[in-house]
C-alpha cells in the first residue's frame, strides 16, 4: 500500500518551499508518492533496489534521478546507502533559462524521464562518474550548510546553487551515451530543437532530421511521451510567447504574429481563438489594468 507524502512534512516555509537533506536508509522504505513536489535524488554511497510503480531496478553510488509527484517509489535492501534528497515545487524549474531548457540533458533528466517513469516501467538514470561525483557532493554540502544556517539571502543562494547543480547534471547527462534509452534522447533532441527554434519557420521534416529519426517515429514517440504532436507542441510555445507579448508590449497583432513565427496575423488569430476561446485583441484587453 502506498502512502501520500507532502512537502509541508519537511518544511512549512510557504515563501520558499524547498528542502534538502542527507538521507540514510538501513531498512526497507514503504512505497510512497509525492503529492505536491518533485524530488532530485543523488546516491552518494552504497546501493539499494529502487522500486518505481512496482518495477525494481538496481541503484548505486553515482546514480541521480528525478521523481515527480505522480510516481510511487521506495527503496529495498539498502546497503551502506546514503543519498541526498532535494525536494522542490515543479515551478522552481522556471528559473532555468532558455539555454538550459533547450539542452538535451535537462529535457531528459528533469522533464522526460520523470514523466515517462510515471507512464511506463523505466529504469534509465544518470550515472555520475566518480571523478565528477566529488564536485556534486561539494555543491550539495554547501547547499545543506546554507539551508541549515539560513543567513541573509540564503533562499537566493539555494535557488542559485540548485540551478548550478541542474546545469552540471544536465551536462553530464547529455554526454552519457551508455544505458540511456535511445527514444528518450531522440525525443530530447527534438524538444531541444523545437524550444530553440520555435520562433523561426520550422517543419516537421526538419525536426525529425535534427533528431536523426523518421517523421513517423518522431510522431510516435512524441505522442507516447507528451500525448501530443511535435507541431502542436511548437504551436503551444508560439501561443504562450504571443500571450507574453500581448501582456508586456504595445506591439500590434501583426508585429506579434511575425515575432512568434507566423507569417499571417489571421492565422495567429484563428489559432489563438481555438486555444484560448478569444482573439488576441480581446485577450490583451482582458489583462490590461
TrEMBL record:
Residues 188-286 form the HTH araC/xylS-type domain. Gene3D superfamilies: Homeodomain-like (1.10.10.60), Jelly Rolls (2.60.120.10). InterPro entries: AraC-bd (IPR003313), Homeodomain-like_sf (IPR009057), HTH-like (IPR037923), HTH_AraC (IPR018060), HTH_AraC-typ_CS (IPR018062), RmlC-like_jellyroll (IPR014710), Tscrpt_reg_AraC-type_HTH (IPR020449). Pfam families: AraC_binding, HTH_18. Keywords: DNA-binding, Transcription, Transcription regulation. The keyword Transcription applies. Transmembrane segments: none annotated. This is HTH-type transcriptional activator RhaR. It comes from Paenibacillus cineris. The lineage of its organism: Bacteria, Bacillati, Bacillota, Bacilli, Bacillales. The gene is rhaR_2.
Amino acid at each position: 500500500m502506498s502512502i501520500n507524502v507532502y512537502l509541508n512534512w519537511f518544511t512549512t516555509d510557504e515563501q520558499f518551499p524547498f528542502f534538502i537533506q542527507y538521507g540514510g536508509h538501513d531498512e526497507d522504505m514503504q512505497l510512497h508518492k509525492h503529492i505536491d513536489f518533485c524530488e532530485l535524488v543523488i546516491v552518494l554511497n552504497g546501493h539499494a533496489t529502487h522500486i518505481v510503480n512496482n518495477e525494481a531496478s538496481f541503484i548505486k553510488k553515482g546514480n541521480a534521478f528525478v521523481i515527480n509527484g505522480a510516481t510511487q517509489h521506495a527503496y529495498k535492501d539498502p546497503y551502506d546507502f546514503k543519498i541526498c534528497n532535494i525536494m522542490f515545487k515543479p515551478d522552481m524549474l522556471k528559473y532555468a533559462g532558455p539555454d538550459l531548457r533547450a539542452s538535451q540533458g535537462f529535457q531528459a533528466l528533469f522533464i522526460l524521464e520523470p514523466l515517462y517513469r510515471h507512464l511506463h516501467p523505466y529504469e534509465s538514470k544518470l550515472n555520475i562518474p566518480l571523478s565528477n561525483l566529488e564536485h556534486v557532493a561539494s555543491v550539495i554540502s554547501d547547499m545543506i550548510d546554507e539551508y541549515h544556517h539560513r543567513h541573509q539571502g540564503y533562499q537566493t543562494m539555494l535557488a542559485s546553487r540548485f540551478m548550478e547543480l541542474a546545469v552540471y547534471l544536465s551536462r553530464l547527462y547529455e554526454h552519457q551515451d551508455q544505458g540511456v534509452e535511445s527514444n528518450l534522447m531522440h525525443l530530447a533532441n527534438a524538444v531541444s530543437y523545437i524550444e530553440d527554434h520555435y520562433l523561426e519557420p520550422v517543419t516537421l521534416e526538419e525536426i525529425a532530421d535534427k533528431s536523426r529519426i523518421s517523421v513517423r517515429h518522431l510522431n510516435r514517440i512524441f505522442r507516447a511521451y507528451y500525448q501530443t504532436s511535435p507541431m502542436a507542441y511548437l504551436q503551444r510555445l508560439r501561443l504562450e510567447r504571443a500571450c507574453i507579448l500581448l501582456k508586456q508590449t504595445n506591439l500590434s497583432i501583426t508585429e506579434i504574429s511575425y515575432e512568434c513565427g507566423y507569417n499571417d496575423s489571421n492565422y495567429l488569430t484563428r489559432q489563438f481563438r481555438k486555444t484560448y476561446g478569444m482573439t488576441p485583441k480581446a485577450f490583451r484587453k482582458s489583462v490590461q489594468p
